Amino acid sequence: MTTTNPVAASEDTKRPLLSALALVCSLKPSPAPSSSELLASQVLDALTGHGVTTAGVVRVVDHDVKPGVELDMGAGDAWPGIRAQLMAADILVLATPTWMGHASSVCHRVLERLDAELSETDEQGRLQTYGKVAVVVVVGNEDGAHKITADLMQALNDVGFTLPAAGVTYWNGEAMHTVDYNDLDETPEKTAAATVAAAANAAHLAGLLKSKPYLPTG
User: Fold this and answer.
1) Is 135 within 8 Å of 164 (Cβ atoms)?
2) What's the rounded mean pLDDT across residues 114-130?
3) Mean pLDDT for the chain?
4) Staple 137 to which of 13, 54, 95, 198, CB 3.0 to 4.6 Å?
């Protein structure tokens, strides 16, 4: 006979509603296939298994995100609209390809625009990004995933995001070869496991932070 754990059932009924948005920093405009978008989408799929609603995927290069470190860089700047989607989400999935051992220029543009969040606080002195969780996704046919992860996690934490344990999933193809992640017949076991862990930990952490926000700092 199958029995229900009353504690687990109670916790499920109290689970806060969460949503996740993926910002994909591929250099390829849509509708070109993107390995970064594929792996980011797999993270979103894994998050849905934890009751997280998918707010969608934004391929940043499809939008005119102006250079700068302000919330709005003026006429034609697409960042305010993207930011509105980001601020409505509880979990950010930030995905980038690897170029010359580094995150893409598009990804760096996103980080530069997020710098403006350092000036955006609530009435209790907390950054508006406090309580939001970030997951990192990296793909490429060269080394660099660990360095990129370190750079992105540091930057995201600097502007107020919280990083879960094992909050990254990545795939590195063989150096100097042309097979991309989206060319694979199946997802490598270790990448799949990392995706599952990142999604589970992100959903858990986001739920905790939504239920019990950070203390006031002002």
Assistant:
1) yes
2) 95
3) 93
4) 95
Q: With helix as H, strand as E and coil as C, how does the chain read? A: CCCCCHHHHHHHHCCCCEEEEEEECCCCCCCCCCHHHHHHHHHHHHHHCCCEEEEEEEEHHHCCCCCCCCCCCCCCCCHHHHHHHHHHCCEEEEEEEEECCEECHHHHHHHHHHHHHHHCECCCCCECCCCCEEEEEEEECCCCHHHHHHHHHHHHHHCCCECCCCCEEEEECCCCCCCCHHHCCCCCHHHHHHHHHHHHHHHHHHHHHHHCCCCCCC
pTM of the model: 0.92
Q: Do residues 95 and 137 touch, judged by C-beta distance below 8 A?
A: yes
Give 16-211's CATH code, choosing from 3.30.70.1560, 1.10.3880.10, 3.40.50.2000, 3.40.50.360. 3.40.50.360
**pLDDT digit string, tens, across residues 124-165:** 999 999 999 999 999 998 889 999 999 999 999 999 999 999
Q: Is the pLDDT of residue 12 over 70?
A: no
Exposed/middle/buried for residue 205 (C-beta within 10 Å: 0-12, 13-18, 19+): buried
Going from N- to C-terminal start, the domains of the chain cover 16-211
